[in-house]
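I hope you will forgive my troubling you with a question about protein structure. You will find the record immediately after this paragraph.
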Amino acid sequence: MRSTHTKQIIHQNKIDCDLEKTGYVLIATCPAREKRIRNEVQLAHALGFDHQWLAKDALNEHIRSDAFRCGSFDPASAIINPAKLARGLKTVVENLAVAVYEQTPLIELDDRCDPLTIKTPAATIRARAALLGLNGYGGSVGFMPSRIHPVHTYIVLTEPLSDADLDRIGWSKNRASLETARNFIHYFRLTADNRILFGGEDVTLFMGGKYGDTHPPTFRALEARFREYFPSLNHVKISHRWGGVLGVTLDMFPTFGQADPKQKIFHATAYNGHGVSLSNYAGKLIAPRILNAINHKSADPNPPDPFFYNRRPAAIPPDPLRYTGMHAYRAALKLQDKWQGA
């Protein structure tokens, strides 16, 4: 997480979410990815960022594994516990007299009248404006189903590591979050209680846009890869396994805005795996627009207007063509990873 805005929100509201400025290391596991990382470091320098190239010895100061060749270091990044952040933000808004109704499914949103009507199992709500923060779940209510695609990522979590365990892999000195430079990345980090969270390896798309929080084949592949990277931790047990849904577009950019500028239905979605930072930044962009739309005076009458505001991501045909096409693309990316040895 590199977002300055999110860090400011956490500090200003004193949210306890295990915020830790660790930096971020991108790791090459094969020569082809080494070339890519070198190019990215050069581009970062050209754009004014202070990324550092890490040869093998320098990489070992952050993490040690025979599978890791070299990498780059971004010192500005930080990690959090996203569940704690969500709970902390809920407390913040409740202290501002905002009512939060969890476990309340949206059944129907009718924008043909003013105010809007929102039907739930328990009640019908009337509102002057609505914000759809759906990310990968938009298709379940018919929101951009051909443009935002629900793909799943999965995670395994170890039991807490001892200081000796961390020393074996060189992760006791610097606690940077880590990511491998593959098509299907591995992302891993230390939690506040020194567990290793290890995710990625593959992504899954289900026919008909269905959802699945567990996927045993991916869990097995993740654990095998974890053991491959860190054989000295073979005695460390996996304590938890889970998955979640990402909202993904073909060009990997988000979309915020209004489907129709005349309506008062706003959306923030398609975070493409960067939801912690982008979902918080969405509030900064959209809140003043909602206030302006319902004729309330906004503290920010001219909010930022990034290129992804009011954009319509490219559409692809519905299932089974979408399912078949995306799995063919997935297979090609996996084949390239295997061919390059990544």
Q: What stands out?
A: Residues 252 and 272 are 6 Å apart (CA to CA). Helices lie at 4-12, 31-46, 56-60, 82-95, 163-168, 216-229, 275-293, 321-340.
